[in-house]
Every structure is written in C-alpha cells, then in structure tokens.
Amino acid sequence: MMMLVAPLGAMAMLVAALVLPGSGWLALVCAVALVAAVLSAVHHAEVIAHRLGEPFGTLVLALAVTVIEVALILSMMLAGGGDKATLPRDTIFSTLMIICNGVVGLCLLIGGLRHREQVFRVEGASVSLTTLMALAALTLVLPRFTTSTQTPTYSPSQLAFAASMALLLWLLFIFVQTVRHRDYFLPASGTGSEDAHAEPPSRARTWLSLGLLPLALVSVVGLAKVLSPRIEAVLADVGAPPAVLGIAIAMLVLLPETLAAVLAARANRLQISLNLAYGSALASIGLTIPAVAAASLLLGLPLVLGADSKELVLMLLTFLVSTLTLGLGRTHAMQGAVHLVIFAAYLFLAMVP
After folding, report:
1. What is the spatial distance between Cα 172 and Cα 218, in angstroms, rounded to a whole number?
2. What pLDDT sits at residue 336?
3. What is the pTM of this model?
4. What are the tens digits of pLDDT across the range 93-104?
5. In whole angstroms, what is the distance from residue 165 CA to residue 153 CA?
6. Residue among 41, 102, 142, 172 at smallest CA distance from 346
7. Which one of 8, 60, 148, 181 is most buried, by most CB atoms within 10 A?
8. Residue 194 has what pLDDT?
9. Does an H or E element contain 104, and which?
C-alpha cells in the first residue's frame, strides 16, 4: 500500500512546494517525499520489468527517466538562455561518470562481495559500451576539435548532423537490444535470484504500476528541482564550485535507476544491472542531444558541447577501464572498487578543480 500512496503523496508535496515556496519545514517534508518517490519508482519499474521480461523491463525505467530529464533540461535552457549554454554538456558528462563509474562500480562491488564472482553476456555489454563510446565522442569530444567555430561548439550544420547521428545510433541500439539480438541482453544461464521465476504480476497490477511509475518519476525530478536552491545554498556555504550543483541534481534524478541496478546486482542479476545502467547512459545522450539541438537551432539558444581537458581525460580513463572490466564476462569486487575510485576522483576534482 505504501508504494501506491507514495507517488500521490510526493506529487502533493511537489504542488505544495510550488504554491508555498521558501518554507523550511516543507523542504524537510519534500526531502522525505523524494526518498519515498524513489523507492516507489523502483518498485513499479520492477513490477513492469517482471511482466514484460528482459530487456524490455529495464528499458521502461531508463526511457522514462531520460524523457523527464530532457524536459527538465529544456525548461532550464529556455528560462536561463545563454547562462545555461553548458547545461546539457555538464548534465550528460555527469550522467556518464555517475553511471559508468558510480552505478556500475557499486553494482560490481556489492555483487562481488556477496557472490564472489558474477557473470554476464559479453555480447550485449560490448554492444552497449561501443555505442556509448561513439555517442560520447560524437557529442562531447569532437566539438572541442572542429574548426568551423571559435569556441567548443558545433556550427548549425555540424550540430544537426551530430544530433541526427546520435538519434540514429540510439534507435539502432534499441532495435538490436529488443529485436535483432535480444538474447545478447538476457541473463546468462545459471544466474539469477530465487524469485526470478516467480509468477508474473497480474495485468491489473501491471497497468497500475505503469500509471504510477511516470507519476513517481515526475515527482522525483520536480522535487529535485525544488530542493536544488537549498542544495545550492549548502554547497555555497562550504565553498563548492557551481558545477557541483549539476552533479547533485543528476544524482537525485538517477536515484531510481541506481537503486534498481544495485538491488539487481545484489540478487545476482548483474546482466539486468548492466542493461539498466548502460541503457540509461545511451538514452541520456541519444535523446538529450537531439532535443537540445533542435531547441538550439529553432530558438537560437546558445549551446556548448565540447568537454574540457580534464573531462576528456576522465572520459578516456573511464572507457578504457570499462573495456577491460567487460572483456571477460566475469566480474568481482576489485573491478567495482577501481570504478568507484575513478568516480571519487571525478567528484573530488569537481569540488577542487
């Protein structure tokens, strides 16, 4: 019953926060509602995933969160104008670091400590990582080295091309994941928790979760945005750079996916964790870049995509380590620790640039 009431309560708190801004006690209640909405989103995503089966189930949560995240970015770009020119780049890079090092590292560490070794399908993981590397290079690296513009941006024609290719790559990946080579993304034989073969939820329960999941996700993003000024104030008090605010908001938005992926790894379903993690990163680039590019071209909004030198080094290190991690189809806790150290370095250098 709690999981049914939580999205409605979180949405009510979001409305109250918009109507009564600045209230200290309301901010505390909103923080509690945010946690409840995250737990509820994970629950309803798991219900849908169990009913649909893999890899369609994990795709639901990744796609839903990404669509809402895109809407949040676009609304902030429209409100901030030139001041938000780097917001899409910062959000995408933060998402890459959080997912590829934070989420994946936590899943590998927890899964490795509990089960010693975990296995997954190399075919699916390599397709996901290869596509993610191409998308990241196309959208975050190349704008730094093109010569048509003076700043780390694309020209209008270059931006239209990059956005089109990003969307095409994402659509092709979804086709491969769900149709052409669906078996590459199914859990390896002999793995899975004891409840993996439990009776699927009823049609009525699935439809209920399908209706409550978007409500919970909207509440998560909305409450994260409402609480961001207070988070910004706390960061300012401790002297944190402005970029840290984007990291904090990204972590809040990615909480449902993170919790779902960690729970799957703990239950010895690492394949589902990887599907969810890398699927979220791919959707973040494959949907966000075309959306913000269209807004930039149609509305004349400035858009800076090229990553700086420090970010390029961290991205290169992340993809190199990820390639080695996913190369054998087996993981253990040490690999998770390495990813988490890279994630810690990213956070530290964001605080101390």
Report:
1. 27
2. 96
3. 0.82
4. 999 999 999 999
5. 17
6. 102
7. 60
8. 44
9. helix 104-115
Distances 8 to 178, 210, 267 between C-alpha atoms, Å:
32, 14, 29
d(CA 7, CA 213): 8
- My answer on whether omega of the bond before 241 falls inside 30° of 0, hence cis, is no
Token pair belonging to 323? 């390639």
- Over range 330-338, report the average pLDDT: 95
Which pLDDT value is given to residue 41? Answer: 78
Residue with tokens 């964790």: 273
Of 254, 77, 288, 68, the C-alpha closest to 166 is 288
Phi then psi dihedrals of residue 305, to 5 deg: -110, -25
Instruction: Please count the other Cβ atoms lying within 10 Å of the Cβ belonging to residue 328.
Output: 11
pLDDT band at 247; cut points 50, 70, 90: confident
Tokens of 195: 């409840």
User: What rounded mean pLDDT belongs to the chain?
Assistant: 85
139 close to 315: Cβ distance less than 8 angstroms: no
Only one residue has tokens 């494959």, namely 286
Domain 58-199+239-351: assigned CATH number: 1.20.1420.30
Tokens standing for 64? 């839903």
Q: Are 213 and 41 in contact (CB under 8 A)?
A: yes
Residue 81 in this model has a pLDDT that exceeds 60: yes
pLDDT band at residue 257 under the 50/70/90 scheme: confident
Residue 3, by phi and psi: left (phi above 0), alpha (psi -120 to 50) or beta?
Answer: alpha
The amino acid present at 84, given as its one-letter code, is K
Could you write out the three-class secondary structure of 260-285? HHHHHHHCCCHHHHHHHHHHHHHHHH
User: Does 217 score more than 90 pLDDT?
Assistant: no
Taking the C-alpha atoms of 219, 224, 225 and 227 in order, what is their torsion angle to the nearest 10 degrees?
Answer: 120
Indicate the domain borders of the chain.
58-199+239-351
Q: What letters, b where the CB count within 10 A reaches 16 and e where it falls short, cover 108-138?
A: bbbbbeebeebbbbeebbebbbebbbebbeb
Residue with tokens 């030198």: 309
- For residue 100, give the amino acid letter: C
